Amino acid sequence: MHATRKLWTWLAVICVLSFSVLGWVGTEIYLTAPPIPKQVISTDGKILFSEGQVQLGQEAWLTAGGQQLGSVWGHGSYVAPDWSADWLHREALALRAIWAQQEFGKIFEQLNVRQQAELDAKLKNEMRVNSYDGKSGNITLSPARAQAVAQVVEHYVALFGDDPKLDKLREQYAMTSGRLRDPLDLQALPAFIFWSAWSAATDRPGETAISYTSNWPHEPLVGNTPTAGAGIWSIASIILMIAAIAGMIFLHSISKEAPDPTPPKTDPLFDLKPTPSMKATKKYFYVVIGLILAQVAMGVITAHYAVEGQSFFGFPLAKILPFTVSRTIHTQFAVLWIATAWLATGLYIAPAISGHEPKYQKLGVDVLFYALLFIVVGSTAFGWLGTLQHSGNDFSFWIGNQGLEFTSMGRVWQVLLFIGLLFWVTLLGRGLMPALKTPSESRGLIAMVFLAALCIGGFYATSLTWGPRTHYSMIEYWRWWLVHLWVEGFFEVFATAVIALLFTRLGLIRASTANSAIVLETIVFLFGGILGTLHHLYFTGTPTFVIAIGAMFSALEVVPLALIGVEAYKNYQRSKAAAWVQAYKWSILCFIAVGFWNVVGAGLLGFAINTPIALYYMQGLNMTAAHGHAALFGVYGMLGIGLLLFCLRGLSDRAAWSDKLLAPMFWSMNIGLAMMVFISLVPAGIYQAWASITQGMWFARSPEVIHSNLMETFVWMRVPGDIVFAIGCVFLALFAWRLLMGGKREQSALTPTAQTKRV
């Protein structure tokens, strides 16, 4: 107990210090973020963008699809361009062409080597000089550059409007015509994209050859190449990671772990009688399976749009289900079904652990279920309809689709979900309170479950921190608090503690050992994970020291994964500890799969893009998608399915249980995911990385690459993996249907007398 108390103290200290640093970084981002100009004017007095247009343009871009339609500073979807890189390249080419005509009377390609070199050097100087005046709040451009900007503005107005000349390009970008109907929005959108590109190329005040985005994206025309810090801190982070892994392996080798206890002769949970509130969680798990099927269907459609931008095998599907909607549902449902599975697990285990059913607990579980269902259906429907009807900026932000990846639901739905999560924490706390008050070996685990749940409910408040015109750098800062810390942080701590608690209840691990192990594991994970959040913010208009902190601490995130294989092997051994454990075989195998994908998806594929030098070239490319699919479904998805199966085991009639359906479900899902990632996404990401390194980010995201024969072949190579994966989802649905129908048939077959005797 004394050793465990010390670990809790260390955990508290690390959390306080880490969040203090993360909060300080946020204030520095706020103070040093790229300035938003009042006006962008030329030296001859022409106004290019007026006051407020950058902020209005940001709203318009998010309404038009935002991060579901291309990206800015590398964050978003992958079919359309990164608009900041696209603008930067187009403006540089236009300015160089204007100078070639003005100074030599020829197009640039017809100039000799000396003349081309002269204009290239002039271009870099022009694009990198910071002409922002802090007193007036204006950005001043030369007349030639103002002319180049006007040309790019014309292109963007036509693209996001309905100019038929760009129909082919819109199809390649998976865009629909007339994305912005309001003339004011259409004129303001280029102001925001210009500002994002200006921030990416303009030197920071008092510095040379370092832009506000640390020279991202790679664009040789304007001298955007990796900074020295990106290379140095990448090397340092790798060295630190290797040293930390070696230290962890050494400590593990000299530590003496108590052996697992002798398992009970019979299943300790066999005679567990589900309480009314526990039974009420069953419908949550069926909704989870429905969301999985819907997410997979939307994923198939979204992936196909990479080949046919507006059609699905010739059918003009984009008229009713555009790419921005299908991708929004695909990403949003992934988070929602995983979260729902974990929330329901918490509600299921609380009375089982404490042996206490609080008054009105079932009513609370039912109310929460229908509230969450209302939020899911409402946010999806209003986001979909708002996109189709072009309902405007205010509608999109408050009740429609905010245009932000993984946090796209309108603000009203976010507020309702926040209230729902706090209600969930209350229900969970009521169920666990008797166990928390009673001294026992498991009390530390139960406390960890409740504290993680409290953080899950509380930290969702970070989704309410930005407004429609908040600085884009700050939106990204707070968005990653939610996506990284909420999903990848506290949910993982919660799930890990729940699994340990379940294993102790089954008598497969010692409660005293699990207490210390979970606290220690949480310390190791959060020590790197909290400040590791910053690896998402290397190039989002943040100070240069963010690269150093993010690189070093994100490298530490990989360290605990080095021993995941050991834990997975122990879980495999526990699955054979006694004959009755086979009843939980597929739940335990799902937990073992979590260990595999933690190493492969989160570890190998994650670290492949996490170092600053790697992410500089690969941010916003398909290597990110490979990591996202392998980590999000492989780790969190399989964890959710494992918990779902465990709970359904206790809620369903054992005669209706079918391992014959679970076997193909498990193997099809994991094999299909591996095929999808390694046959399609990883090769596509490597090809794009080559394009980014050799020519620039604009080229890696251009139609020339995205719709090249090789790239489209990689997209088609997803089909076999998608089919195998989808078969696994169908088997899961069939299993759930059999479980449901088998239980109903048995119940209807029982006579009232038999039912009474059984009770």
Automatic annotation (TrEMBL):
Any single Gene Ontology cellular-component annotation: membrane
Stored InterPro entries: Cyt_c_oxase-like_su1_sf, Cyt_C_Oxase_1, NorB_cytochrome_c-like
GO biological process: aerobic respiration
Keywords tagged on the record: Membrane, Transmembrane, Transmembrane helix
Pfam families membership: COX1, NorB_cytochrome_c-like
Regions that span the bilayer: 230-251, 284-307, 334-355, 367-386, 412-433, 445-466, 478-504, 516-539, 545-566, 586-609, 629-648, 669-690, 723-740
Recorded superkingdom: Bacteria
Nitric oxide reductase subunit B cytochrome c-like domain ranges (all copies): 37-218
Molecular function, one GO term: heme binding
Classification via SUPFAM superfamilies: Cytochrome c oxidase subunit I-like
PANTHER family listed in its UniProt record: CYTOCHROME B SUBUNIT OF NITRIC OXIDE REDUCTASE, CYTOCHROME C OXIDASE SUBUNIT 1
Protein name in the entry: Nitric-oxide reductase large subunit
